[in-house]
Amino acid sequence: MTALEDKPIADEGVPAGAAPVSEEQVLSTLNADGSRNWLCPRVSPGRFWQARRITAYLLIVLFTIVPYLKVNGRPLMLLDVMHRRFTFFGVTFLPTDTLLMALLIVSVFLLIFLVTALFGRVWCGWACPQTVYMEFLYRPIERLFDGAPGSRRSAKKAKGLRRVLKHVAFVLCSVFLANTFLAYFVPPEQLFRWIAGSPLQHPTAFLVMAITTALMLFDFGYFREQTCLVACPYGRLQSALVDRHSMIITYDEKRGEPRGKKRTSKKGAAQDVSLPVAAPQQGDCIDCHKCVTTCPTGIDIRNGLQMECIGCAQCIDACDDVMDKIGRPRGLIRYSSQAVVSGEARHFVRPRVIVYPTVMAVLLGIFAVLITSRASAEAQVLPRQGAPFYALDTGEIANQVRMRLVNRGNSSAQYTLSIASPDGARLDMEDSTIELEPTQSETVGFVVVLPPELFGARGRCDLEILVTGSDGFTKTVSYHVLGPVHRSGR
Ligand code: SF4
Ligand code: SF4
Predict the structure, then answer these.
(1) Could you tell me which residues are beta bridge partners of residue 463?
(2) Is the pLDDT assigned to residue 406 strictly greater than 70?
């Protein structure tokens, strides 16, 4: 017996135990008195649910292992906020790579726009971690302890030991998710040290992990669909991103309306006598509300495309099952477009479907050129601090200079500093060779000493500092130092 079959249809066409969405209801999750309408969606285990379940478990494995995978010795993905280093597919972006990051981020946004224009919120329904963990980890656990929504066991809800065990399972899942989430922001070696060490050794790390776990518990244990409805901006952008030809989950109003009132089959078309069947003058929708009670955001897809629809296809599975039982063709609710269900021709190629990938290709082209021509290291003189110059006992003029060096390569390298010009200037530094690990950056300070006659009438001298690396990197950094005004002949 499926979850759809485990409950007879109640008198008003709404499965017993499920709250129908009333006319006055502004939000599916908000009761008229302002209290929250706590949703307990039924599972409709049809073909889309089966496919989503397989996808979800594969994604859970993928989300878990991605932070530990390496490309060229670097993480596949690491958003190291603390050290301001982002790594994607083995390529590390530093704060000086703002343009590259901007190109990448805009391209990702354009990809999202394109996918949404073509397939609606397919990401939300099939791959978003919020949906994946909520529908295929937390809700199954809840059903295990509370029983399937609408069942007698569910009516009693978890009590006593079952309730404690449910919350223990939720906490364990949240700890697991918190660690998975943090692994995207903290290098794995450091994360393992945090996990293995005593909280007293890493109090800040422990606090971060505890807060992240609490947030996961709050999100998946309490806030749930509110994250999609209230917190996530993507749903709100949907109306601007889709058009009449986007493939979304639609109710075929022409076929379904007018909705049938209950009229129980005595024999014939309906295989399940507890289901009402449509009268001949009625549409195929028998107003059984199964598409509503299975919806994880509690909406009625028959009211048209709504911001709250996350494209999970549960209403398709629910309705197909009903159609099978009353002997009508499947697809009253289906993946289609607003244009097609209104009887118009489908247009796959539209301006936005051409513009998004074109702009994306241009941006990614620029990105590819910039990244392939990027030097293996970076050397940059930082703004001067304190007194601009001072005179030595020898009469020479000294300037303090700070230089930031970054190793972008995949192996450690040594960098040597020297003065390329003008003649007579020298670099005063304890050790002018600096060794840097891959992606390591360091600010080094040194003194440039020059004879006073190099400063001329303007009291400044143009310098060229040569940086050479053991990895073949060479760069001449231009800079000017200050000194006393020097007039020749005086
Ligand atoms: S659309 Fe399908 S599932 Fe929804 S109420 Fe009508 S018949 Fe029932
Ligand atoms: S309306 Fe259908 S596709 Fe949209 S969220 Fe509800 S069940 Fe999922």
Answers:
(1) 479
(2) yes
Average pLDDT for the chain = 86
Phi, psi of 263 (to 5 degrees): -155, 95
Q: 103, 366 in Cβ contact below 8 A?
A: yes
Residue 61: CB partners within 8 Å, gap ≥ 6?
none
**Rounded to whole angstroms, how far apart are CA atoms 426 and 448?**
6
pLDDT at 410 over 50: yes
Distance 393 CA to ligand 1 centre (A): 93
The CA 43 to ligand 1 mean position distance, Å, reads 15
- Amino acid identity of 124? C
Structural domains in the chain, CATH included, are 1-374 (no CATH), 377-482 (2.60.40.10)
* Separation of CA 97 from chain center: 21
Give SS3 for 113: helix
Percentage helix, strand, coil, to 5, in the chain? 40, 20, 40
Using DSSP, state whether 432 is helix, strand or coil.
Answer: coil
Q: Is the CB of 242 under 6 A from ligand 2?
A: no
Whole-model pTM?
Answer: 0.80
Whole-number Å distance, alpha carbon 291 to ligand 1 midpoint, is 6
